[in-house]
Design goal:
heterodimer; A: 176 residues; mainly alpha; Rna Polymerase Sigma Factor, Chain: A; Arc Repressor Mutant, subunit A; 2 domains; elongated; B: 253 residues; alpha+beta; Phosphorylase Kinase, domain 1; 7-stranded antiparallel β-sheet; 9 helices; 7 strands; binds zinc ion
């Protein structure tokens, strides 16, 4: 039956990108449950609009829908979008008294990096995640975040400068 | 090449996103400039660090199972609803997704008053707009001639949208396409204002009387909604609110 075939086609094209979808949602929303809800909602939307998929790049197409869901969740509760209200406790829990002998220093480095990425504005954070963790090209990222390739390029460059500065500041203890 | 120009291009150089000529120009500069060479090294270090240390959050197997269940439910809900309600003709004409959308949106949860539905529709309008900007789905019929675009919809829709070229006023009609919104096939009309694309979605209204322009903003997009002569109009764009409103005013005249 045609519908069964369409369903199978959807599963085959879109389900393999579930980890990418969750990873992006988790970085954007910074919460496990919110991310799961957004991903499930995005999958249902993707299914409903599967015939608008041009068959070229299912990952970028799906991530565009995921990202869209996340942005509207963030828009609804602007509290969460505010970097100033960002809860640093969850990042600093195992961050105290670095001890070079026990690997705690290394652990602190990892927490520090994650905190700096989380501090990036969402439009910088998403391009960093898509570029460095998904290894997507600028063209693919431009589809996923619905901006021109030139904008992807400048956002990534600015995001990297911010990240670099944040990490340097934390090493000096300024951001603690 | 100046330092300022080179600094801009070190990030895309690292991503292998420059063409060969640009890349070799930047590389030549870096060989003679310690400051830029240092910056390149820092970027490289940063990238290694992000790739090694930033967690990749994987989806759980429970989430996969949950989504799979929800999808199957959505698919079979469509099966149950389609036949008894006699939408077979429509579904086979407009394809699988149309039927699915109908079934999905007509679920009990989605019954809504015009008022409460407004936000929900505005969300969908934005999603459709964003989707339309992705490769190769913006336009099905490309024409700046309203007398070409309007007849194109005949036979594809059970209503006839008003099609109006506002090229002389700076909002040029570039074409039209079929889209799916609010649980039904709708007309999508595409206009261009400078580099901004405006999507105008049109479909029959359930309300008897017309309504004046109302304006929304959702995640960076402006939306203007009105209804006239039994049809709803939703204009959406990243164009500024004032100009989008002007467009709607001109269109609804
Ligand atoms: Zn230089």
């Amino acid at each position: 039956m045609a519908d069964t075939i369409a369903f199978a086609r959807f599963e085959q094209a879109v389900m393999p990108h579930l980890h990418a979808a969750y990873n992006l949602a988790r970085w954007l929303l910074r919460d496990h449950h919110d991310a799961e809800d957004a991903v499930q909602d995005a999958y249902l939307r993707a299914f409903r609009f599967f015939d608008s998929f041009d068959g070229v790049d299912a990952r970028a197409w799906l991530l565009a829908i995921v990202r869209n869901r996340c942005r509207s969740v963030l828009g609804q509760s602007s509290r969460r979008a505010e970097v100033t209200e960002f809860d640093e406790k969850m990042h600093t829990a195992d961050d105290s008294a670095p001890d070079p002998e026990s690997g705690a220093l290394r652990n602190a480095e990892i927490v520090s990096l994650r905190t700096c990425i989380d501090y990036l504005p969402a439009e910088y954070r998403e391009v960093v995640v898509l570029r460095e963790l998904e290894q997507m090209s600028y063209k693919e990222i431009s589809v996923a975040v619905a901006v021109p390739v030139g904008t992807v390029m400048s956002r990534l460059a600015r995001a990297r400068i911010r990240l670099k500065d944040c990490i340097t500041a934390r090493v000096r203890g300024v951001a603690r | 090449m100046t330092c300022d120009a080179a600094r801009e291009l070190i990030s895309p150089l690292l991503d292998a996103e420059l063409d060969a000529a640009q890349a070799s120009e930047v590389e030549r500069h870096i060989q003679t400039c310690i400051a830029c060479a240092e910056l390149q090294f820092e970027y490289l270090q940063l990238r290694e660090r992000v790739r090694a240390d930033a967690p990749y959050y994987s989806a759980t197997e429970e989430l996969r199972a949950q989504i799979d269940r929800a999808l199957r439910q959505a698919a079979s809900a469509k099966e149950r609803r389609r036949a008894p309600w006699g939408w077979i003709a429509l579904a086979s004409a407009a394809g699988f997704a149309a039927a699915l959308v109908l079934a999905f949106l007509l679920g009990p949860k989605m019954f809504h008053s015009e008022q409460a539905g407004g936000d929900l529709i505005a969300q969908e309008v934005v999603s459709s707009h964003v989707r339309s900007l992705m490769a190769s789905h913006l336009i099905d019929v490309r024409s700046s001639d309203q007398h070409t675009v309007k007849p194109w919809f005949a036979g594809k829709l059970d209503f006839s949208p008003k099609v109006k070229d506002l090229g002389p006023q700076g909002y040029a009609l570039t074409g039209g396409r079929l889209d799916y919104l609010d649980g039904r096939p709708v007309a999508g009309l595409v206009f261009q204002r400078r580099q901004h694309v405006i999507n105008l979605f049109v479909w029959p209204s359930t309300a008897q009387s017309g309504s004046r322009l109302s304006t929304f903003a959702i995640t960076g997009f402006n939306i203007v909604h009105w209804s006239e002569a039994g049809l709803m109009y939703w204009a959406v764009s990243d164009l500024n609110a004032a100009e989008l409103r002007e467009f709607a005013q001109l269109y609804s005249e």
